[in-house]
Amino acid sequence: MVKPLIALLGATGSIGTSTLSVAKEQHYQIGLASAHQDYPKLLKIAADYNIPCLVFTGISDKSLQQKLRHENQQLRLYFGETELLQALQSEDYSIAINAISGSAGLSSSFAILQRDKKLALANKESLVMAGHLIAKLRSSHPIIPVDSEHSAIFQAIGVHPANEIRKLHITASGGAFRDLPLKDFANITPAQALQHPNWSMGAKVTLDSATMFNKALEVIEAHWLFKLPYQQITAVMHPQSIIHSLVEFIDGSFLAQLSTPDMKLPILYALTYPNRAKSNLVKTDLTQLSELSFKAIDQDRYPLFFIGLKAAQAGGIYPTVMNAAVEAASRLFLSGRIPFTSISSLVQKALDHYPFVEEPDLETIIGMNKEVFLWVSELSL
Ligand code: NDP
Ligand code: MG
Q: Which of 134, 182, 247, 380 pairs as cysteine with 156 (C-beta 3.0–4.6 A)?
C-alpha cells in the first residue's frame, strides 16, 4: 500500500491531534499543516513531525508574520485564508484532511476537490452549507468521511448501490444533558456543556452534541455523502457510543460498525481506504460492554435537532442560515451572554427572518454566513 502524504488542516485541534497520533503510528508523512492562530503549537508540531509547510489562517499582523518568517527560514509559511487556498493549489500532498472547525472550512474543501485531490472530510459544515455545489464538482475520488457515524455508514455500505439501502440510522450519544431534568436546562453553564460523556472533541462540536444540533448537521452530511433522500435517513439515541451507525438494507438486514469511541479509528480508515492497516491505537473489549441500547430522540430535550431537520428538508440557503445562527448563538452562550435554552430560539428567529434562496452559489453562501452570524450576534446587545 502506498503511504499517503497528508495535508492536515486544523492540525492544532482535536481531530488534528488524533491524526498526528495516527501518522506517528503508521509512519505517514505530513506535507502541510494549518492552524488559525496557535502558532506556538503548530511550530512545535512541525518540529516533531518534520512538516515543511505551515499555514496560519488567522495571523494578519504583518510584524508577527515577519518575525515568524525570520525565525523559521527552513519552513514555507503562508498567512491568511487566501494563502491557505494557494497552498492547497500548489503544495504537494496526496490526501487532505479538512479538520478546520465550523463554516471557515468550506473554501478549503472546494480548493481540494477542484484540484482533484482526495478529501478526508471532518468539516461537516462544508456539506451542510454547500452540499448541492460539492455534489456537482467532478472528482475522481469519493469524499471519505472522517465523522465517526459517516465512516461507519461508508464502511457498512461497502459496494452496495443506493437502491439496496432502505435506511441509514445515525446514532447519537445524547451529549452532556441526556439525563438532566428539563427544569434544570435554563441554568446550564458553559463548563457543563463542554463536558462530553463519551467523546473527547473540540468545543463547538461538544456543545453541538449537548444541543443535538450536531445530529442535524450529520443528517445533512449523510444526505450529500450517500446521495439519499431525507426520508431514508434517521437518527436514534445510543448512549454508549459503541455502534457508530447502522445501514438497513432492503432485505431487512442491518450492518453496523462498532468500536470504543475514538476518532483515531475513522481517521485511520480514511487514510487507508480502500485498504485497512494494522494498528493498536484503538482497542475494544466486547466483554466489558454491559449493554447496547437505543431510544428515540426527545423533542423537548433537543429542540435544535428538530429545527435542524426542518431546515435540512427545506434546503437551499436554510442550512447555511441555521449553521451560522448556531455558530453565533453558541458563542453568545459560551461567553455567558445568553442562557443555554436561548440557543434554539435565536436560531429559529434567524430562520424566520431570512427569505428562502433555492440554489445559492458559493458567493451567496459565504455572504449569508457572515451576515447571519452578525445579525444573531447583535440580537443579544
Ligand atoms: P477544534 O476546535 O478542536 O480545532 C479546530 C481547528 O481548526 C484548530 O486547528 C484551529 O486552529 C482551526 N481553526 C479554528 N478556527 C479557524 C478558522 N477560522 N480558520 C481556519 N482554521 C481554524 O475542532 P475539532 O477538531 O473538534 O473539529 C474540527 C472539525 O471536525 C469540525 O467541523 C467538527 O465538527 C468535525 N468533527 C470533529 C470531531 C471530533 O471528535 N473532534 C468528530 C467529528 C467531526 P487554532 O488552534 O489555531 O485555533
Ligand atoms: Mg459525529
A: 247
Check whether 138 has a pLDDT greater than 90: no
Contact at 8 Å (CB) between 130 and 365? yes
The structural domains of the chain, with segments of one domain joined by +, span: 5-141, 160-261+295-377
- Nearest CA owner, ligand 1 atom 9: 10
CATH class in words for 5-141: alpha beta
Confidence tier at 150 by pLDDT (50, 70, 90): very high
Does residue 170 have a pLDDT over 90? yes
Q: Which residues line ligand 1 (CB under 6 A)?
A: 10-16, 35-38, 57-58, 99-101, 104-105, 122-125, 147, 199, 201-205, 263
* DSSP 8-state symbol, 295: B
Q: Are 155 and 266 in contact (CB under 8 A)?
A: no
Do the Cβ atoms of 115 and 86 come closer than 8 Å?
Answer: no
CATH topology of domain 160-261+295-377: Rna Polymerase Sigma Factor; Chain: A (1.10.1740)
pTM: 0.97
| Cell output for 253 | 438486514
Residue 381 pLDDT: 67
Is pLDDT of 33 > 70? yes
